[in-house]
Design goal:
The chain is built from six helices and 15 strands. It is of the alpha+beta class and 265 residues long. A seven-stranded mixed β-sheet has the order 6-5-4-3-8-1-15, with no helix packed on it. Strands 9, 10, 11, 12, 13 and 14 form a six-stranded antiparallel β-sheet that branches. A two-stranded antiparallel sheet has the order 2-7. The longest helix is centred in the N-terminal third of the chain and has 26 residues. The radius of gyration is 20 Å and the shape is globular. The relative contact order is 0.22. About 6% of the residues have low confidence.
């Protein structure tokens, strides 16, 4: 009888380990999105996706906190938000997000430019090494920055919420000189536009975890660039009345550009 019980327990354990391994393999090199980018930018700021569930899909990424209360970043499996006051704090896994993209980051390429780079020069350098125009890249940049400019939005308080591009005058900007930290971001291809934000998208977190936000401008001094080439993407959509009734017919390409750059085009 004891041997049968032992066999039964070992079978359950083996099955659990096998399923866990299969899940981990399935998530490798996959970009996961909670939400749809153009819908979020169009005004869907109510939180619906648990951070606890987000951890099942990645340890590296970015997004937005509930009610647009700042900017969200995930680094090494830990979540932080930078509010419009400039305060950066660790987030509780009991909270939820209206929009986020994550992956399990594992670098397969490392680069060191060994020179000072402006934001435009950094993107040009990245273009020179990330040559697949239809590639999906997760990019981690760590090092010393001569200058960093970031932004965050204040929380929305009343519906109907305005699209992000209509609230650019509410942004709060933060500037830092001679600072160490991390850029967490992605380079996504044009064919993913709408569901995602194509091109480059980075958020910043300082080494002391006291400063952050969406990148507006920078001058990099001594940085190391790590790249994880992703090969798939999955998405979970909000099952909410607001999403069900959202009008996707409007072209929001220019709005997305304005939001990314922090100014009207």
């Amino acid at each position: 009888m004891r041997s049968l019980i032992k066999y039964f327990l070992l079978s359950i354990l083996f099955s659990f380990i096998t399923n866990l391994s299969a899940t981990a393999q399935k998530n490798t090199h996959n970009l996961f999105s909670a939400g749809y980018a153009s819908a979020f930018i169009g005004g869907l700021y109510d939180a619906w996706y648990p951070y606890k569930s987000l951890h099942l899909h990645g340890d590296f990424g970015l997004g937005a906190p509930a009610m647009l209360d700042g900017e969200l970043i995930m680094l090494n499996g830990k979540l932080y938000k930078t509010q419009y006051t400039g305060k950066t704090s660790r987030l509780s896994d009991t909270e939820k997000t209206p929009y986020a993209i994550v992956c399990f980051f594992k670098a397969n390429r490392v680069y060191k430019p060994n020179r000072q780079l402006s934001k435009a020069e950094l993107y040009k350098y990245l273009d020179s090494v990330l040559i697949n125009q239809n590639g999906i890249y997760a990019v981690h940049i760590n090092g010393d920055f001569k200058y960093i400019k970031t932004r965050a939005f204040p929380p929305v308080v009343q519906k109907p919420y305005l699209p992000l591009a209509a609230m650019l005058d509410r942004q709060h900007f933060f500037e830092f000189n001679t600072i160490k930290g991390d850029l967490v971001g992605y380079k996504l291809p044009v064919f993913m536009e709408g569901a995602h934000i194509s091109g480059y998208h980075f958020h910043f977190l300082s080494d002391d975890k006291a400063a952050g936000g969406h990148i507006i401008d920078l001058i990099a001094n001594d940085i190391t660039i790590e790249v994880d080439t992703l090969s798939s993407y999955t998405m979970e959509l909000p099952q909410t009345p607001d999403f069900n009734n959202f009008d996707f017919r409007k072209d929001r390409k220019e709005e997305i550009k304005s939001v990314e750059n922090g100014k009207k085009q």
